[in-house]
What does this fold into?
Amino acid sequence: MTEERFVAPKNLKYFTYALITIGVISFAIGFFTDPQRTWANYLLNNFYFVSLAIGAAFFISIQYIAQAGWSAAFKRIPEAMAAYIPFAAVFFLILLIGVHSLYEWSHQETLATDRLIQHKAPFLNTPFLAVRLVIFFSLWILLTKLMRQTSLKEDIEGGLAHFHRSEKLSKIFIFIVAVSFSVFAIDMLMSLEVHWFSTLFAAKTFISAFLHGSAIITLIVILLHRNGHLNMLNRSHLHDFTRYMFMLAIVWGYFTFAQFMLIWYGNIPEETAFYVHRWHSPYQFLFYASIVLNWLIPFLLLMPRKTSRSKLAMIPVIVLLMIGYYIELYYEIWPATVHDAKFGLLEIGTFLGYAGLFSLVVINYLGKANLVPVKHPYLEESMQHHF
Amino acid sequence: MTGVFDNEFDLVKAFEKVKASGVQIEEVYTPYPIHEILEGMGKKTRITHAAFFYGLFGALAVLGGMYYAAVISWPLNFGGKPFNTFPSFLVVTIVATILIITLATLFTFSARAQIFPGKAAKIADPRATDNKFVIVINSETPEFEATSLEKLLKENGASEVY
It folds into this structure.
């Protein structure tokens, strides 16, 4: 296998710079005109893109633990996506400034009168939140960096030792991410509705991250292939990528439905409050839209063998999944913070800004190493993959 | 005519040659699935489509049945819920649909393949159930010619031809 380098086209880089500029301008205008809504945007976009990065890192770990051969040639793409985590860390620490605009539990006056918030205060308070964020992000950054280093070393030295080390790191990573990302989802999203709780919420959010992370990995692989890289990509690889999306869309649907059904059937006021607040016109529509985009469309469109291995069918599904994730987070964040379903240039501009930054990070990190891990022990199997 | 092979590679080689000579291959028995044979036999299955429609039919039938029982035939008030408690119907629907698909597909497959419990097995070569790769060739096709075919199989590594 010859070495293959990804050199980002100049235009693409300028394009991401332009997107970032749009994002910065949107935030600047937003913080002056409507700070609360801007903070909600800030939280949504941060969570959106850190989920993709965590989902990608989890994807690599799963490949190592299962000793999957087919994906070896593509592992640089999730690696590049995981490189976004340090940037997200900075953003989430900045979010601590805006805690008062987002989280009801951080208001001193409600804390003084609300018994339930007082009960939750030992966990839900700003200093402890900061400590948790620092711990989570340092663990994620440390492990993803170690995995990346091992992978780069393997490129030079070869041998099996690096593979075994990666596998060991992956095993540690999935345990850490299972606990930390769950608490992270509870902190960042569930505590927006401080009186509400759902034991399935963290698991659902994690599956969402994995689903949409896998979708973005697939999208980047297809785009690279279009531009003349990764020539070994064949229909069997595409089918395997589709399997991830298809399987995770079903699990997503299962978790979302399980959470809704139990709350709906149990009909306990403190649990139903979440859905009651979201059972009027725009949000009710978004509830169904999220299910259609994240579950129904991938489920139906990716089921036949023909579409599950065709880029023509996969790209629209991935784009719809991206919109679906935005809707899912919007549905959770907006009723708790902005209340009215406002959507305008601010939302579009900030999302474009983050998309630009995320793309820039991925492009840069793809360019920093061989696009194909040339001495990965499973590389040959991955190149010949066929079923 | 039956050819017995010791390994996958010889079998695939002979398989391609026999196919190229125009003789019809009746069936190939291997200890594990081999891609080249699966594709080379050119047999398409429509059982997945059947399964999909069984599932569609099953889901609608189960939902319809529960709707009839809970709303039309015998409405009962449970804790002020609407009679049509659609979300709770879904759980039963998923499980029942899986059962319907499984059983209906199994029966369809058995009927099409003419398999039923207690049927005497038709085994081309007893070693095909062990570690040998067996190719069975239809001797009724016009291109069939025993001596040349036997030679062809032997040349490509068949350990036995009969």
